[in-house]
Amino acid sequence: MNDAELVQHVSNGNESAFRFLIAKHQRLVLHVVGRVVQQQADAEDVCQEVFMKVFRKIDRFRGDSKLSTWIATIAYNTSISYVRKQGRHRELSYDEEPLLVNLEKEQVFSHKTVEKEEAKKYLLQLIEKLPVNYRTVLTLYHLEEFSYKEIEEITGMPEGTVKSYLSRARKILKEKLEAVIETEKTNIFVDYA
Amino acid sequence: MHNEKEYNNPDNWLDEALKSEPGFHLSSDFAERVAKQAVRRFAWNQYFREFLIYLAAFLGIVVLSAGMSFIWLSANWKEWLQFVTDNFALVAGLNFLGVFILFADRVLLRYFFYKFSNQSVV
Asked: What's the CATH code of the domain at A165?
C-alpha cells in the first residue's frame, strides 16, 4: 500500500489502516519526540498526541512531501509545544551554544582502555546534553536519514543552519571523545609510573 | 594493525553512536490502543456532526414554516409569544425532550452500539 492509498483509507476512518500507519511511523515519531522531550514518562503521551493530530489532520495531507516528513513535522511541533508548556523555554533558544557539561568519566569508562561500547554510551549521553535543535537535527539526519531539505521542512530551520548545526555538533562530539581517549591513554602511563 | 586503527577511529564510533537508537520505548500495544482511540473519536465526531445537521435542518423547517405563517397566513406573533411565555415550562420541556431523543438516536445509541460491537469482536 503506498502513502496515497494509506492516507485515503485513514481519512475514511479505517482502523486497520491507521494501526498500520502508526506501526510504520512510530519509531520515527518516538525518536523525534524522545530527543526533544527527553523523558520516557512523557514520550509515550506526546507520541499519542502526535498520532491523534495525524489522524485529525490527515485530510490536509496533499502529498506534496513524503508522509514521513509530514508526520515528523507534526511530531517536532508537538514536542516543542510540549516543552514550551512545561516551562522549559530556555532549552528551545536557537542561540543557545552547546555548553556540554563534563560527564563523570569514571561512570562511563570502567576500563583502562576505551571500549567501543563504552564510548558509544558516552557519546549517547553527550548527544542528550546538546541543545534541543542540535539533538533534533542530528536525529533527523543520521538516525532517520532525512535530507537537508526535508529537515528544513520539518523544523523550519534554514538549510544553512541545519548544515551548520550538524557540523558543529559533530565537531564538538568528536573533540570530547578524543579528549577522553587521550586522557585514558595518559592515565595508563600514570598508573604504570 | 589496520583493523585496530579502524576500530579505534573516533569517527567510526561517532557514526555508530549517531545511528544508535535513543533509549526510549513505547508500550507493545501502542499502535493498537491509539488506533482504537482515534477511530472511536472519529466515530463520535461523525455521529455528532450528523446530529447537528439534523438539528439544523429541523430548525430550518420550523423557522421557514413560521416565516411563511407570518407572511402568507398573517399570524400574530404577539399571540405566539404570549403562548410561549404562558407555557414556558411545557414548551422548553418538549423542545429539550425532542433534542434529547434526536441526540440519543443519532449519537448516543449509535456510538454505544459501535463501541460494544468492537469490544465483542475483541
From this structure: 1.10.10.10
Nearest to A30 by CA among A42, A45, A47, A18: A47
Distance (Å, rounded) from C-alpha A114 to C-alpha B4?
Answer: 13
Residue A111 sits in the same domain as residue A67: no
Domain boundary among A73, A90, A107: A90
CA distance A117 to chain B (A): 9
Tell me what ipTM this predicted complex has. 0.74
Q: Measured over all CA atoms, what is the biggest interatomic distance in chain B, rounded to whole angstroms?
A: 106
Q: Which three cell numbers stand for residue A61?
A: 495531507
The residue range of the domain holding A154 is 98-193
Contacts of A181 in chain B (CB under 8 A): 8, 10
pLDDT digits (tens, 9 = 90+) for A15-53: 899 999 999 999 999 999 999 988 888 899 999 999 999
Q: Judge: A26–B31 Cβ closer than 8 Å, yes or no.
A: yes
Residue A161 neighbours by CB under 8 Å, 6+ apart: A94
Give A34→chain B minimum CA distance, Å: 6
Q: Give the amino acid at A122.
A: Y
